[in-house]
Amino acid sequence: xTATYRSRLLRLVRRQGVFAAHEATGAGIHSQQLTRLVAEGxxxxxxxxxxxxxxxxxxxxxxxxxxxxxxxxxxISLLSALAxxxxxxxxxxxxxxxxPRGTRPPRLTNLRLRVIRSTGxxxxxxxxxxxxxxxxxRITSVAxxxxxxxxxxxxxxxxxxxxxxxxxxxxxxxxxxxLNRAARVCRVENVMRPYVExxxx
Length: 201
What we know:
With about 200 residues, this protein is of the alpha+beta class. It contains eleven helices and eight strands. The strands form three sheets. It has a three-stranded antiparallel β-sheet with strand order 1-3-2. Helix 5 (about 80-85) packs antiparallel against helix 7. It is elongated and about 65 Å long.
């Protein structure tokens, strides 16, 4: 591997952490070079068409970064957003990802996804952008995550939604205006009202 290719690769990795094969090509690193770098152990394939340095430091958020990179229009949501925000006690073994309705879920080799499909305000309202491992990652806010949990209570369990609501309120992690707005978007105002009133009483 020439110094030129190595410097291009290092620039790409410093900028993005995990990169796609087409991004490497755009940086002047050809597919044969990628294959050679994998064989030499310089980089590794972390997902379908995605690579990273073999000795890169991984954070606890590595899985949601991979999912976000594979689905740029997707949003980390529900139990994965809950775990990211440090609310409740859930430690999901898969990444919960909301994607636009009508799009195909990403195919990742070593990562399990739980996909929710949505559209309009239900896809965009209450979404924050956090920078993790050098990557912008779209994640639902605490208020939006709680509303989502009530909306999908049949999937995650009402007990999980209630635990999140109580813990987030105790830690003062959301404003009531934001929670009310998220509940309207998710159409769970009536469902949530008695539980919210009981928690804040």
